[in-house]
Automatic annotation (TrEMBL):
Upper classification of the organism: Bacteria, Pseudomonadati, Pseudomonadota, Alphaproteobacteria, Rhodobacterales
Record's protein name: Glutamine--fructose-6-phosphate aminotransferase [isomerizing]
Stated role: Catalyzes the first step in hexosamine metabolism, converting fructose-6P into glucosamine-6P using glutamine as a nitrogen source.
Subunit structure: Homodimer.
CC annotations in GO: cytosol
Length: 607
């Protein structure tokens, strides 16, 4: 969702702004723009649609200047048009903004009464107009900027250029992430300063990075950076080295990022395995040492989208291996009902980016009411990772495709490791049991690789499925959330309606939909529910449905995918890879935009 890049440099910035925006395409967007100051005036270039449209415009009329900001927009207020694209200008102020200004309508009315006119439908243009108005009413720039932050309500990450200040950028953050990057000393002896909505935007530009906290604002100049907290006091935020590796966003030999990331799972899972288990001794490493599950009387897990289904899978593991009751919560609903917190409750929050607005808000909401908060994230420097009492990173590396793949399996594996830790803490998982489970987990990268080799078998099934208007995915036990994730992936990137159901629930309503035009995909599990799943599948076949079965026990003569034989604990990962390939190949057959499906964003940083 919406990306920001800003550069206060010693060389021309237009090309580097575009490069930074290209790194932010994965967040999802529908328009883009840059603003460059030449020392006197600010040159604005915007385009709707793909970033290539903006690049083409800039190539025909390249703005000159060493100070600039850029933005990729995902529409919230107003349609995806050039007029609504960022940056927005009002008087002396040109700015970009991520988030939602909740009181923008009230502010807009006040400004219109004072004679202001607006060219867009956005809350961001109102933000620029408010700051311009305050500049005319204030004695100093600092006074105007602080007044701005006091009069707006909502979530925001702001980067602003102001005519008359050729060596300054104003930035602020509340609820939306913002990072400041520091480059090396240039040949002229001056430092370069950068700002980005995440560290990936600053890859290849900054050598060091610091992260603004909620309520922070800052004035960036080439010779100094001043950061102020919510109360206006000058503060220092920790600066860390920018990772030299791990930021590569090239697709390599793959036609899409999604396919590349599906194929990266043997490596990403192996990387996480090395972080959580000692393969030689068959023991669990000392993960999240500050979290002790011995006294826990309940675990609540909070997430959105794909991460939500990862928590559903983990519920089976935690209740089995640790004997702790688990509640699963959708983050967007979590805060909007009275909750009774357990006296010894541990809350786990799962998010790929660590910036998901609803999940982050839920984390803040429970702080002080539960024993511990724990974040499972892919970005260790994210807000969620910093705010939680403890963090476990999934080690997936950058995930660019909007539809999550390697992050999903990484989240499952991290949560499985937590389940085993909880079981060990409570004495439920004995050393010999843990050793056997570790032996199973060691096979995971190999079995995922073998599953990837089934792509040819999956392709024809995918082509058949995408010809239908509806697809039903079924599973029982731990395969039920896998079926739900399959339905989510399918509709995300194929735009074909799909539903995931617990197979035993068919007869309670959904079976009314089943006819010879309805394909039904059944995930078989190597567990005690295998026979019951087969019985549910028979009910579907009896009503003429086209059934597809996925699992290690699938017979060669049955339409489906016969997966590599695996243990019960590994099987959800194998089936996850199948569902990802199934959705990917179906989308490919239909010709949709696999990496950037319509209306979706990678990181949902607004409520």
């Amino acid at each position: 969702m919406c990306g920001i890049i800003g550069i206060l440099g010693q060389d021309e910035v237009a090309g580097r702004l575009l490069e930074g925006l290209s790194r932010l395409e994965y967040r999802g967007y529908d328009s883009a723009g840059i603003a460059v100051m030449d020392g006197v005036k600010i040159d604005l270039t915007k385009a709707d649609g793909k970033l290539s449209h903006l690049i083409e415009k800039v190539a025909h009329n390249t703005p000159v200047g060493r100070l600039g900001i850029g933005h990729t927009r995902w529409a919230t207020h107003g349609a995806a048009t050039v007029e609504n694209a960022h940056p927005h200008r009002a008087g002396k102020v040109t700015l970009v903004h991520n988030g939602i200004i909740e009181n923008y309508a009230e502010l807009k009315t006040e400004l219109e009464c004072a004679g202001a006119q607006f060219a867009s439908e956005t809350d961001t243009e109102v933000l620029a107009s408010v700051l311009d108005h305050l500049l005319n009413q204030s004695d100093t720039l600092d006074e105007a900027c602080q007044a701005l932050l006091h009069c707006i309500k909502g979530s925001y990450a702001i980067a602003a250029l102001i005519e008359g200040y050729p060596d300054l950028m104003f930035v602020a953050r509340n609820g939306s992430p913002l990072a400041i990057g520091y480059g090396g000393i240039t040949s002229t002896g001056h430092n370069e300063i950068f700002v980005g909505s995440d560290a990936l935007a600053l890859a290849g530009l900054a050598a060091r990075v610091s992260y603004l906290e909620d309520g922070d604002s800052a004035f960036l100049r080439s010779d100094r950076v001043q950061v102020f907290d919510r109360g206006g006091a000058e503060v220092t935020r920790e600066t860390v080295e920018m990772p030299e590796e791990g930021w590569e966003v090239d697709k390599g030999p793959y036609p899409h990022f999604m396919l590349k990331e599906i194929h990266e799972q043997p490596e990403s899972l192996a990387r996480l395995l090395r972080e959580v288990i000692d393969i030689e001794s068959g023991a669990l490493k000392d993960i999240v040492p500050t979290v002790d599950f011995r006294g826990a009387d309940r675990i609540v897990m909070v997430a959105c989208g794909t991460a939500h289904y990862a928590t559903h899978v983990a519920k089976y593991w935690i209740e089995r291996f640790a004997r702790i009751p688990v509640e699963i919560e959708i983050a967007s609903e979590f805060r909007y009902r009275p909750r009774v917190h357990g006296k010894h409750e541990i809350a786990i929050f799962v998010s790929q980016s660590g910036e998901t607005a609803d999940t982050l808000a839920a984390l803040k909401d429970v702080q002080g009411h539960v024993t511990k908060t724990l974040a499972v994230v892919n970005v260790p420097t994210s807000t969620m990772a910093r705010d939680a009492d403890a963090v476990l990173t999934i080690e997936a590396g950058p995930e660019i495709g909007v539809a999550s793949t390697k992050a999903f399996t990484g989240q499952m594996l991290a949560l499985l490791a937590l389940a085993l830790k909880a079981g060990c803490d409570r004495g439920v998982v004995a050393p010999e049991m843990l050793s056997a489970l570790v032996d199973d987990l060691v096979t995971l990268p190999r079995l995922v690789s073998e599953t990837l080799a089934l792509s040819g078998d999956i392709d024809q099934i995918a082509r058949n499925l995408v010809q239908s208007e509806h697809v039903l995915f079924l599973g029982r036990g731990i395969q039920y959330p896998i079926a739900c994730e399959a339905a989510l992936k399918f509709k995300e990137i194929t735009y074909v309606h799909a539903d995931g159901y617990a197979a035993g629930e068919l007869k309670h309503g959904p079976i009314a939909l089943v006819d010879d035009a309805m394909p039904v995909v059944v995930f078989d599990g190597a567990d005690a529910l295998t026979e019951k799943t087969a019985s549910n599948a028979a009910e579907v076949v009896a009503r003429g449905a086209r059934m597809v079965r996925i699992g290690a026990s699938v017979e060669v003569c049955v339409a489906g995918v016969r997966t590599p034989a695996s243990s019960e604990v590994v099987e959800p990962f194998v089936n996850a890879v199948v569902l990802q390939l199934l959705a990917y190949q179906a989308a490919l057959a239909k010709g949709t935009n696999v990496d950037q499906p319509r209306n979706l964003a990678k990181s949902v940083t607004v409520e």
